[in-house]
């Protein structure tokens, strides 16, 4: 199908960061032409007069398995949040609940203009999440979480090393490069605290063998770092480097508490960092020193984390927070809007290893984009305003009207095209009720830990 979008304000994010009013032609899922005016035949013409078109957001740290837990673990510190609420709820998941948790999260992401994610699932039923990703049209790099070590882990989530590896490889061989690469697999050891060294070393070798990414957490919380130092004799990033995991394949979520030696490892090894300001603030973990990471040429992108700790998956909020939280300490010019918007688009594409395919609106790239209506009280006036600054500081997820992934319209005029919104919300409420009943019974029997 040839789809022509006419007369939009196009925020390209090409090398020149051009913004102009014009047309964009989609053919066979890719951008065929961008110009002030395109005169050609098209199977469908979409009028975007007065609207703003942007590259689809790329969120590099998401937990779709936790969308059902929104509001269930508020006002707790990370390790308590994890051990007392989130891990028991993850252990209670069944195939149906995980499917609707993923669908609920994907619906929110698409509605807010996010077209690509780096996702980490839970230990079991990951197939259901991949099924949701396949049906919904989202672009994703995802994998089952891996856990073979640690205290306070529900028995249902504790794996032996061989089983964790076996199940991960089975999922990889089935889902990696599904739908012409729209879905890809990543190995997802949860974090050093929950993984043996044997598991991490096998992940390192398998990621190289299959040429896939590794997605994990690191240095989110001081208590976590103390545990890693106690068990492994050094800080997170230094330990990951010691065992050969620090490489361009590695995406590290959070990196709130880094020292100079760890920043040097990140720069020298080409490790990718996913900054999650909303989650880090809510859990009182702190906030990553992004200006220092940028100063050493680290690759930094943005993610909302999970709905259990945020409590939303809104890239507009993450952009605004990412820009604002650095300014009191580093000054008003420390995180300019254009830098933040790049983190939300091209930065995420780089983290996924797809900068030549997504992250900007350029001829030949995949047609992943969102169209916004910014003709609102909160985003006006616009005369003389930098369009990218307007997107970072004024726009909201509710401004997104249309989302296109791989050239396919997955939301149009705020109507979801790949899922039944009412059914997803209805079934999500049924599912969380079931999980809460299960965890209450486990609490009564004392069998969580």
Polypeptide structure, described:
α4 packs parallel to α6 (197-210), α8 packs across α9 (260-269) and α14 (337-351) packs across α15 (387-393). The chain has 2 domains: 2-55 and 364-416, Urease, subunit C, domain 1; 57-351, Alpha-Beta Barrel (TIM Barrel). The chain is built from 16 helices and 18 strands. The protein has helices spanning 78-92, 95-111, 126-136, 161-175, 178-181, 197-210, 222-232, 236-242, 260-269, 277-282, 290-295, 315-324, 327-330, 337-351, 387-393, 421-445; strands at 2-11, 19-27, 30-35, 44-47, 52-55, 57-62, 114-120, 139-143, 145-146, 183-189, 213-218, 250-254, 272-275, 299-302, 369-372, 400-405, 408-412, 415-416. The N and C termini lie far apart (54 Å). Helices cover 39% and strands 21% of the residues. It is globular and about 65 Å long. The mean pLDDT is 96. β10 (183-189), α6 and β11 (213-218) form a beta-alpha-beta unit. It is an alpha/beta fold and 449 residues long. Strands 1, 2, 3, 4, 5, 15, 16, 17 and 18 form a 9-stranded mixed sheet that branches. Strands 6, 7, 8, 9, 10, 11, 12, 13 and 14 form a 9-stranded parallel sheet that branches. This is Cytosine/adenosine deaminase. Keywords: Hydrolase, Metal-binding, Zinc.
């Amino acid at each position: 199908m040839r789809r022509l979008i006419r007369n939009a304000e196009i925020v390209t994010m090409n090398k020149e960061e051009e913004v102009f009013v014009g047309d964009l032609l989609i053919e066979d899922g890719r951008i065929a032409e961008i110009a002030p005016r395109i005169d050609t035949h098209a199977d469908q013409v979409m009028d975007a007069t007065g609207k703003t078109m942007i590259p689809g957001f790329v969120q590099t740290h998401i937990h779709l398995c936790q969308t059902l837990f929104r509001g269930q673990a508020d006002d707790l510190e990370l390790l308590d949040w994890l051990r007392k609420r989130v891990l028991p709820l993850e252990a209670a998941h069944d195939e149906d609940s995980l499917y609707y948790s993923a669908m609920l999260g994907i619906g929110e992401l698409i509605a807010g203009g996010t077209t690509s994610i780096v996702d980490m699932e839970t230990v079991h039923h990951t197939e259901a999440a991949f099924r949701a990703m396949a049906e919904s049209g989202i672009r994703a790099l995802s994998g089952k979480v891996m856990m073979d070590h640690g205290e306070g882990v529900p028995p249902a989530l504790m794996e032996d090393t061989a089983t964790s590896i076996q199940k991960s490889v089975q999922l990889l061989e089935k889902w990696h490069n599904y739908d012409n690469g729209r879905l890809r697999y990543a190995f997802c050891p949860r974090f050093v605290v929950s993984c043996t060294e044997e598991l991490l070393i096998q992940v390192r070798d398998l990621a190289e063998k299959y040429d896939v990414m590794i997605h994990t957490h690191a240095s989110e919380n001081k208590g976590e770092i103390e545990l890693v130092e106690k068990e492994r004799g050094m800080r997170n990033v230094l330990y990951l480097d010691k065992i050969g995991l620090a490489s361009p394949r590695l995406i590290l979520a959070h990196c709130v508490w880094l020292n100079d030696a760890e920043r040097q490892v990140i720069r020298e090894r080409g490790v990718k960092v996913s900054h999650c300001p909303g989650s880090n603030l809510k859990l009182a973990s702190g906030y990553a020193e992004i200006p220092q990471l940028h100063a050493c040429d680290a690759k930094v992108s943005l993610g909302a984390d999970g709905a259990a700790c945020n409590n939303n998956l809104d890239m507009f909020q993450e952009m605004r927070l990412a820009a604002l939280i650095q300014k009191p300490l580093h000054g008003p010019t420390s995180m300019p809007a254009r830098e933040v918007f790049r983190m939300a688009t091209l930065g995420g594409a780089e983290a996924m290893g797809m900068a030549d395919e997504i992250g900007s609106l350029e001829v030949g790239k995949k047609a992943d984009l969102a169209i916004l209506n910014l003709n609102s009280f909160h985003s006006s006036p616009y005369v003389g305003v930098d369009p990218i600054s307007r997107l970072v500081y004024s726009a909201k997820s509710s401004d997104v009207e249309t989302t296109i992934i791989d050239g396919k319209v997955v939301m149009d005029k705020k109507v979801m095209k790949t899922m039944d919104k009412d059914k997803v919300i209805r079934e999500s409420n049924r599912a969380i009720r079931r999980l809460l009943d299960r965890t209450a019974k486990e609490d009564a029997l004392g069998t969580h830990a």
